[in-house]
Amino acid sequence: MNDRFIVGLVVANHHGVLNRIAGLYGKRGYNIDSLAVGETEDPRFSRMTIVSTGNRNIRTQVVKQLNKLHDVVRAELLDAPDTISVEHLLIKLKTQETGNAEVVSLINRYGGKILDLGEHFIIADVTGSTQHIHAFITQCIPFGILELCRSGSLALSGGTEKILSAHQKNKFN
Amino acid sequence: MNCSGAQILVEELIKHGVKTVFGYPGGAVLDIYDELYRNAHRIEHIISAHEQGAAHAADGYARVTGKPGVVIATSGPGATNLVTGIANAYLDSIPMVAITGNVAVSLLGRDSFQEVDIIGITQPIVKHSYIVRKVEELEFVLSEAFWLASTGRKGPVLVDIPKSVQKELCEYPGSRRHSSPPSSQVSDLDLTEALKFIANSKRPYIYCGGGVLAAEAEEEIVSLSQRLSAPVGLSMMGLTAIPASYPLNLGMSGMHGKYAASMAQSKADLILAVGVRFSDRATGNVAEYTKNCTVIHIDIDEAEIGKNITSVVELCGDAKAILQKLLEKLPLARQEEWLETVAAYRKKDECREKELYFTPGNILRYIANAVPPETVVATDVGQHQMWTMQHYRFERTRTLLTSGGLGAMGFGLGASIGGCVGNEKNPTLLFTGDGSFGMNLNELATAVSQQLPILIVLFNNGVLGMVRQWQYMFYEERYSSTTLGRKTDFVQLAKAFGADGKTIHSMDELKQAFSQGFPSDGPFLLDCRIDGNERVYPMIPPGGSVKDMMMQQGGEAHE
After folding, report:
1. What are the structural domains, with CATH classification, of chain A?
2. A61/B306 CB distance under 8 A
3. Could you give the ipTM of this predicted complex?
4. B188-349 has which fold?
5. Using an 8 Å Cβ cutoff, are A140 and A91 in contact?
6. Residue B553: its pLDDT value, please?
7. 3-class DSSP state for residue B42?
């Protein structure tokens, strides 16, 4: 877990960009543990959060190589202790004929929300650190997980020093 | 003014100073070729025998002129045939703009006739690439493509233009120009740090590569070398950066580098590395390589700094500007002891071959003296390539066209065509081997039809010499598939293509051929029958260090 690192990127929002970025990780042999991407407030740009594993050399190489891609506005290693990182989980659990109190209490303990409740299932939504999500999933196993879906980590730097925004002065302006 | 996509392309090429393009027509580029036909008086198109040859020609053209080489190919097989040429330009940081046609936008993604996803295929080997889906984007894309190819760390850019986009019309202002943002400035702190390490060095060594040519920092390297009493070792890509006759030029270092270059590198206490990327062929064992020294690394590509070698000072930016700043503050330092040591190393590289032997070294030394120093020299890949690096003395910058990073056999003939065209069709040399030449010799047709005075010196030993050398050294002489046993008559072959040639068995025959001269309006082939057991020495085995250097068959280097 120690070698895990997060890269935040602002990239051009057009087809093929994800390919180039995933291709770069693949070509250089860096593993992607999770990848999350979404449009920014400016639809010309997307923001990505990529989590991977590797030593210091690999981290700096990844960021330098990413910054060389023309479609990457800016890539930054988000390694400061005050980095805010959360993950989002949707999970569908089996419900028991004997009642759902236990499941509901577990979801509540992890700060989750119940999004849907059927005759044989319950869908919950939990947000938190990767460890938080991990712990929650482990607790869910005895209830019977039907399926789950994780967003991958989303991360922002803490403070206002290392702002990654589409409106920074960049090579597209 | 309303223009078609094809018109915009041709206008943009002309606007970016392109006088010659290389390529091969086909269904998906018919509109482009129609426009080239109409503009034949403004822009020259040279048709190759195969798209790979055209790509290598564009590469050779770029190496000679320093400007982006342009190659055009049709969709599908035309585009895939460019792949080796694009990869070659990518690994050697050569500016290139590759234009491919594609099927009409409405047919994209349907596995249409001659459709391939060339953007996907070439993604890991381009600096950037575009597929233009709207004609309105074309002007912007092309001017950005030229800008990207030729600024920063140079490289190939691919522009894929569907047939429908070539036909569509749009308003074409023709006024868009990309300008470079100011290159990043090195901090004074880093410069001071570098100066401190330089001042403390007793045995400085300059290692320069292709980045010196790209930055046109050749003069600065010589000044630096003189100022510091620092010998200069060169990577293959940097071989023409300084004249062979410069007394502190030790020649190429690395696996088949000169003894002096490798020894001086290993004994240096400081390496000033300029525009190099420390490839495995250049360093051997990385830990051994920097065991006794610190490294100051100057490169325009931040990602190269610290990639293969750890340096104490990292100076990222334009090599010429950085070197000028360093030179402003560097005092003259005479390191007599170091210079004597280096001079002693150099003695080991002195030629001991009898001049009458018909050996690769003698052939190369003879030819280097027989042609003007500004002659452009292309090579293929293998033993003959290493012999050329070792024995041909390059005096002028940008006179060597060789496949460095990719090591692509078959590069030479296409590159020599591009180099010859880029050098105003002056006499050009190609050193090749029978293996490499066999790969793309179809381009003889191009050299003949373009009336290019290319002298092809074929080191014909009937074997794949470099692979065979490794089999000799590391595979107990099991010569798997390297004894060719072909019956190709290369002189007859040249004649069949409409050129001419001679078979050469001795130095006397070689000298006689030179005294008779070569045609000025077409290629000529010298089929030099050399011994199949000739090997390339020195050699530092892969992953080894200077301690493992082999000087002759079975021998080892001794101080």
Report:
1. 4-79 (3.30.70.260), 84-154 (3.30.70.1150)
2. yes
3. 0.90
4. Rossmann fold (3.40.50)
5. yes
6. 52
7. coil
